[in-house]
Amino acid sequence: MKNCLLLCVAVLALAVGVPASAQYMYLDVNGDGVCDNADVISGTTTSVDIWLSTDHNGDGSEAFCPTFQPLTFNSYTWILRSSGGITFGTWVDAMAFTTQFASGAAGNDRWIGRGSGTIMDPGLYRLGTQNITVTSGSPVLSIVTNTSAAPSARTSFGSQCVGTLGDNTLRLQVEWNDVCGTASGTPVTETTWGKIKDLYRAH
Asked: What are the φ and ψ backbone dihedral angles of 141, each rounded to 5 degrees?
């Protein structure tokens, strides 16, 4: 019994000592560099910026690499999903990443991948701008993990951090979970799912 207690304490200590990893990818409609309830797509919206913080979580707390290397980055792949009412246009990369991975649009999904031989320091970066045309209603854009239209695509970024799968790629819902999409232009009440979602939008 004593040995069992000692083993349990040792396992608990190891669990506490391993830092949690997370990063933050988000959308910005109004150009203020943050994602909040003001980021609503209207009929006059023509573009959406995509941002990535490699070293901080959505709540501003510090993120850690699960395998203890720096949270640099030199590539990204993202997948957007609309609620409808949007036609996706061109992607304008802001990182000067010249290597193009698979990209495309199908149905309500849009995915883009870019890479570079230059390793960027850990930090917050505006990846670029996705041009859009609003065709109806007040659509919402979300960052999602994957798309059935391109099974190999996965929201992720390349890093010196080896990651849990050992391939220097940090994937949404594997190493990190914090994303923030655009807000709904439809008013919500305290009892609706939309209001509950708003409370957790930045986490």
From this structure: -110, 135
